[in-house]
Amino acid sequence: MEAYQAALEGKPTAAGKAVGAERSAPGSISALIALYYTTPAFRTLAASTQVTYRGILERFRKAHGDKRIATLKREHVRHIIRSMQETPSAANNLLDRIRGLMQLAIEEGLREDDPSLGVKKISTKTDGFYTWSETDIAQFEAQFPIGTRARLAFSLLLYTAQRRSDVVRMGPQHISDGVLTIRQQKTGMEVGIPIHPELHRVLNATPTQHLAFLVTAQGKPFTPPGFTNWFRECVHKAGLSDGCSPHGLRKAAARRLAEAGCTAHEIMAVTGHQSLEEVERYTRAAGRRGLAARAMGRLETKS
After folding, report:
1. Among candidates 18, 35, 91, 26, which has minimal Cα distance to 60?
2. Domain ranges in the chain?
3. pTM
């Protein structure tokens, strides 16, 4: 069981070898991936991020693990990425992971250069998760009145602007003096969000006997994937498209904050984002007409 747990976490075995090293030829891509799993760069990632990275790297290992690190060329990397052009996000994620591996190879003296440099990412032409519109929000609220479990989940997502992995952990113990405080699972950042009056109404109408506000029909804690599957069913019942995801409500919350005139730093204090670039990406859907009208109004005031 210890060996199994070590394999899950990418830890060295009792013999001191990296998991997977015994099936990897020295100097191979497979051996480099096994080494990467033992580094602080991987070990200090959030557990959910480790799972994501491992999935990407294990697929890469299966296809190219037997190849030598020293013979990997730029045209090889370019060909691998271009072969995935039908799934641009997956291609770009793989390119990021290859770059991380090559940096490790350079640090370990296995290469002197990074063959991924100069390989361009594939244009995705997308803003990522769909941002719920006000019409979407109203339609969901009409389907699920206050007091229902679906409305509670919806309100926690919209009025805290947090990820699903944090929303499923929220409970009464996180609220004090009208502020919901939680340490984000992905970033480790602590955020304190004043309870919105609408969320206050919803919480009062749906009391819980559990440590978490949201639990399954059997009274068990939700896993993030399980929560998404259940919430997708609620979205279907409301007559909305599959694009209306939990993460899209986080983006809708950021959009609302931008439309209310909040600064980027104020939005970051709520969402927990760590860069202005991330906030800009999330608030791209902010109503430009309303923002422009408000901006011109300020200009008129100064005239």
Report:
1. 91
2. 2-107, 134-295
3. 0.63
